[in-house]
Amino acid sequence: MDNILLLIKEGEFEDAELDDYSFSCYSQLEVDGTQHLLTCAFDDPDVNSTNLEFEICGALLNVKCLTFDKLQEMYFIKTKKFLLIGDSEIHVKLGGKNITSKKLNIVEIVKPEAPFDIRVIYRKGANDFLVTFNTSHSQKKYVKELMHEVAYRQEKNENDWMHVNLSSTKLTLLQRKLQPDAMYEIKVRSIPNANYFQGFWSEWSPTFHFRTPEITGRMDPVLLTISILSFFSVALMVILACALWKKRIKPIVWPSLPDHKKTLEQLCKKPKKNLNVSFNPESFLDCQIHKVDGIQARDEAESFLQDTSSQLDESEKQRLGGGMQGPTWPSEHAAITPKAFREDSPFGCLAGSISMCEALVQSSSRSPDCREGGKNGPHVYQGLLLGPGTTNSTVPTPSPFQSGILTLSPTAQGQPVLTSLGSSQEEAYVTMSSFYQNQ
Amino acid sequence: MFHVSFRYIFGIPPLILVLLPVTSSDCDIEGKDGREYQHVLMISINDLDTMIKNRTNCPNNEPKVFKKHACDDNKEGMFLYRAARKLKQFVKVNNSEDFNLHLSRVSQGTLQLLNCTPKEDNKSVKEQRKQKSLCSLGILLQKIKTCWNKILRGSKEH
Parallel, antiparallel, or unpaired: how do β-strands A88-94 and A97-104 relate? Predict the structure, then answer.
């Protein structure tokens, strides 16, 4: 029994010894030119490393094994003779006797060098911070591709680090994601990108401190002025557009089709304000309308003129005289009597040319008010409305013409002209053809 | 009867051994994914190329190097095995340390990735000893590079 107990105790002691000599290693390739560095250390710092040696065998060039150098509690070897392909064995020896061994691959325990020269530049135009840093591995042949980790925090917030992973050496931090007018610190570290070389994080780079700018409450004064002016101008344009929409804007943008009757009314209204121009027969109810039965002699015309001469203006007389003397007077002054007439009157004053409007003006100028004219007796209607179907009307030849009043016999020779006219207001135009055909 | 049995015992087996064809088994290639070649071997081959070009002006006509061996289909492993062994012949004392190390890395690294068990060929060893010029080394390295590229292309297609 005692012997058995002793054996168990010995076994426990051996296990404890092995645990004590556990170690870990990391490699750094091309750390000094073309030389590589392999560093090992015991996991337990309390291990008595006196007389302990480290040795690496396998995956070496031209040699079988290499012995580590010792510096305090660290064991390292600096050499170019790593094959970088295949596994090696690390032996811990005490007095030449192998205590413990570990199989590892040099390319799988790579620890990159720490990045350096980290800088932060504020870009006002882009409202962001450009973070740049440098790494010595960009110049190396083997471990060229690394993954970097940037960590930043506000100085007052301890242990509140923000982390960003990137493969390049530039990073952009947006201003809106940082506190304004605050002090920040930033640092970076690297690790092999695990394509072929793998390993551990490097040490952190030296920390860089930067301050974020304040957010100014005032806008640029020029920008502010321009924005206010443009706002008010837009508001003014909207108000004017609403106010003038119906009267001014809509007729231009969406013009209504012109009505010839209204247009003519407006045109005729312009010269004389007191002119009673209308195509509405009801406005001329007060006027006495006499039928024109035929062409009367000059004497009768003159007698009528004498009666109404007192009511004429000088300018009107001249115009009338000039118009009457012209051989083409009937064509030019085929006046349009007002449309408004009594129902039995054959005459109608319908839309026509401006010349007809002028005659109308002349005729009505003699009698500016129908009511006044009515008091003076019968009127002289120099205007005569003839329709297209006036083939049978008796009209004077254009030359020579003796002034008078053209009258039409509404009953002579078939259909009276004006009745045909009265039947269709759109056809009440005087045409020269009507004069010639009746000769 | 006795002298007859002796003839069969001691005569025929050596005959059989002599008449048996020399079978050279091809090699198993471990680094077919190309990681070891691209990250380690190719770097050393390129460095050696640069060093050779800086030291010598090789003629345009290709010297007779490794003519008997080619990177034929299904024989790429054997070609690399032989070429890697030949590289050791170029390791010299008067070369720089880096030059020798790169040579050793290409040679040893290639052999590490191959699993070959060929027979020794005395004639080829003699032939290797003859051609040790740097220009020959440059051509050999290019052939090794070409053969590795062929292996990697073939593995990608599969």
Answer: antiparallel
Cα B113 from Cα B121, distance rounded (Å): 21
Q: Is the peptide bond preceding residue A271 cis, with omega within 30 degrees of 0?
A: no
Q: What single letter denotes the amino acid at residue A131?
A: V
Q: Which two tokens stand for residue A253?
A: 């943008």
Q: How many CB contacts within 8 angstroms connect chain A with chain B?
A: 43
Report the distance separating Cα B33 and Cα A356, nearest Å.
105
Secondary structure (3-state) at A96: coil
pTM of the predicted model over 0.80: no
Q: Quote the CA–CA distance of A136 and A315 in Å, as a whole number.
A: 108
Q: Could you tell me which chain B residue has the CA closest to the CA of A79?
A: B101
CB contacts of A142 in chain B (<8 Å) are 39-40, 43
Q: Please judge whether B43 and A80 are an interchain contact, meaning their C-beta atoms are less than 8 angstroms apart.
A: no
Q: Which residues of A touch B48 (CB under 8 A)?
A: none
For an interface test with B, give the residue of A32, A35, A60, A61 to mutate (most B CBs within 10 A).
Answer: A61
What are A384's two structure tokens? 């005569």
Could you say which residues from 24 to 83 on chain A have a Cβ atom under 8 Å away from some Cβ of chain B?
34, 59, 61-62, 80-81, 83
Q: What does the alpha-carbon distance between residue A122 and residue A11 come to, in Å, rounded to a whole number?
A: 65
3-state secondary structure of A191: strand
Dist. CA B92–CA B132, nearest whole Å? 10
Distance separating alpha carbons of residues A404 and A396, to the nearest angstrom: 10
Gap from B130 CA to chain A (nearest CA, Å): 23
pLDDT tens readout for residues A253-275: 887 787 888 778 877 765 555 66
Residue type, A415: Q
Complex ipTM tops 0.85: no
For the sheet containing A183-192, what is the strand order? Answer: A162-166, A146-154, A183-192, A208-211
Largest CA distance in chain A: 176
Question: Token pair of A141, please?
Answer: 């042949």
Pair of tokens at residue A320? 């009338």
In A196-332, the DSSP E strands lie at 208-211
Which residue from A64, A68, A40, A44 is spatially nearest to A55, judged by alpha carbons? Answer: A68
For B37, the enclosing helix (H) or strand (E) is none
Q: Are the C-beta atoms of A386 and A282 separated by less than 8 Å?
A: no
The fold adopted by the segment(s) B27-116+130-155 is Growth Hormone; Chain: A; (1.20.1250)
Residues of chain B neighbouring A61 (CB-CB closer than 8 A) = 101, 104-105, 108
Nearest chain B residue to A194 by CA distance is B35
- The verdict on a CB contact (< 8 Å) between B40 and A142 is yes
Instruction: Give residue-wise pLDDT tens across range A133-155.
Output: 999 999 999 999 999 999 999 98
Asked if A197's CB is within 8 angstroms of B38's CB, the reply is no
Chain B nearest C-alpha distance from A155 (Å) = 42
Show residues of chain A in contact with B40, CB under 8 Å: 83-85, 142
